[in-house]
Amino acid sequence: MDLVALQEIRWLGNGVQNRRGSNRYDIFYSCHDRHHMLGTGFAVGPRLKSEIIGFEAINDRLCTLRMRGKFYNISLINVHAPTEDKEEEEKDLFYGRLAKTIKSRPRHDLIIILGDFNAKIGREPVYRQYTGSHSLHEHSNDNGSRLVQFAAANNLVVGSTKFARRDIHKATGSSSFSRINNNNQSSFTINIRIFWCPDNSTAFAYTAR
Length: 209
What we know:
Largest sheet: 6 strands, mixed
Oligomer: single chain
Protein name: Endonuclease/exonuclease/phosphatase domain-containing protein
Distance between the termini: 29 Å
Number of helices: 3
Structural class: alpha+beta
Strand order of the largest sheet: 5-6-7-8-12-9
């Protein structure tokens, strides 16, 4: 893998851990200043190291990485949203900061948001404009509804629900107290045009702004 979005790094502070050697990853991280909790970041492999334009550590739930692209530069936004049981105010603050982060990206960048939204997206027909039909769940939880409403407000689509996969590959975690699998949506992309990865195996949609 050339690039991996990381959550729950649990380091302190922010910065870059440069790894020497042809097969080493550089770790860009954005963590809490005093507590070993949360933390987001990116692991960048040797093939992409020279394409990195900049990294911004926003807080322990958000960070961005900007890369050179062939036709457009690419802004990656890595997120770790509050869990379902968190207070409404904490969730509002997270989505407010994410909205500001999107708006602050360079105008012509291709934007891809990825990470862990801790959200269960259902297959409600009312959401179909912003989600696909391949979610693991029938009904959205509160975090899922917030995610779809955020998509609607920012002209986004929840990309991980757009592709058909076996249910076993949709589950990102399971409770130790039950057999219920969780499908915490972790791929969030901007709508309208199509950007193909170099190996032509993955497509992300985005909007030209």
